[in-house]
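in:
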């Protein structure tokens, strides 16, 4: 119904009303169909606003079949399995008969680069670069060159350091792939200068790979403290240290993660993991405190209760009867 109203308004010459209606019904309207409607009715200014708002990219009045093109653009932005289909359509498939090559197509985007969100440009560039890895020459070189051009065109117009950093980091990967090591290093340094957390993440991975686990944990702790992703983003990395029996490193990392967790079950889970890390490094009083914190977040978890008793037994065996009594009394 919403798309029908947009189409009817456009047919009636009421493009401003159509765009206002689209904005008011964005949660329920079919965005791809709406994009096609504005394109098909030659309302390119409004189509560009929709495209930019939704992180699509529009090469204006390029293809006669606007609906299919709008879908292809959507797939290109969303990435994954669809990027290859988009490139096939342009180079070999149904659009090939129009004798349009990818470079010509993306030159239009470069000319209008200030109209596009940095996020969209970086995402498209990454999709093209990823697709290049699976392609053969000469398409491989063309895709990489287009990705590079888009990023270089975007950088002077982007005020946000976040997207500058992502663009430079992708350029680093492009130049590294091409064997242009000096340029690759320059781009990596630029990425670090705009976002220091990228360097911390790289350091963490490099140290972990080199089995310098203490340095790796220190870098990752700083990375967690300086970034604001949902806590689930960090869980696997933190658990990787515990799974390798790196308990001192886990003791460093888990409290930083706990500061980010807002779910009671996960609070219990990681306090329990912290308690086990203390227990296995013979820090019984700290272990007991961590287990008790876990218990407070979920009093039904039997593993936590068992760990508290185990901790009490260890305290007793070491002659710390007062602490053991306190632990057993809590149970």
């Amino acid at each position: 119904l919403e798309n029908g109203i947009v189409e009817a308004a456009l047919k009636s010459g009421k493009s401003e009303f159509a765009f206002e209606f689209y904005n008011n019904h964005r949660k329920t309207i079919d965005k791809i169909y709406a994009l096609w409607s504005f394109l098909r009715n030659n309302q390119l200014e409004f189509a560009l606003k929709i495209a930019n708002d939704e992180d699509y990219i529009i090469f204006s009045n390029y293809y006669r079949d606007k609906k299919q093109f709008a879908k292809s653009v959507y797939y290109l932005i969303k990435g994954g399995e669809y990027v290859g289909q988009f490139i096939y359509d342009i180079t070999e498939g149904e659009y090939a008969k129009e004798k349009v090559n990818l470079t010509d197509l993306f030159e239009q985007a470069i000319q209008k680069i200030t109209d596009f969100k940095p996020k969209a440009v970086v995402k498209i560039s990454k999709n093209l670069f990823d697709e290049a890895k699976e392609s053969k020459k000469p398409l491989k070189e063309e895709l990489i060159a287009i990705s590079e051009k888009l990023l270089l065109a975007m950088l002077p117009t982007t005020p946000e350091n976040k997207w500058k950093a992502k663009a430079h980091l992708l350029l680093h990967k492009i130049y590294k792939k091409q064997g242009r090591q000096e340029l690759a290093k320059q781009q990596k340094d630029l990425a670090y200068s705009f976002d220091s957390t990228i360097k911390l993440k790289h350091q963490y991975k490099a140290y972990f790979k080199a089995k310098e686990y203490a340095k790796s944990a220190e870098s990752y702790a700083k990375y967690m403290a300086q970034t604001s992703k949902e806590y689930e983003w960090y869980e696997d990395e933190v658990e990787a240290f515990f799974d390798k029996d790196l308990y001192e490193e886990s003791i460093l990392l888990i409290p930083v993660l706990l500061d980010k967790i807002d779910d009671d079950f996960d609070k219990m889970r990681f306090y329990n993991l912290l308690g086990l890390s203390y227990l296995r490094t013979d820090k019984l009083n700290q272990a007991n405190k961590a287990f008790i914190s876990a218990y407070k977040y979920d009093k039904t978890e039997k593993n936590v209760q068992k760990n508290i008793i185990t901790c009490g037994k260890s305290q007793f065996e070491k002659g710390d009867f007062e602490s053991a009594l306190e632990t057993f009394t809590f149970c």
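note: The two ends are 62 Å apart (CA to CA).
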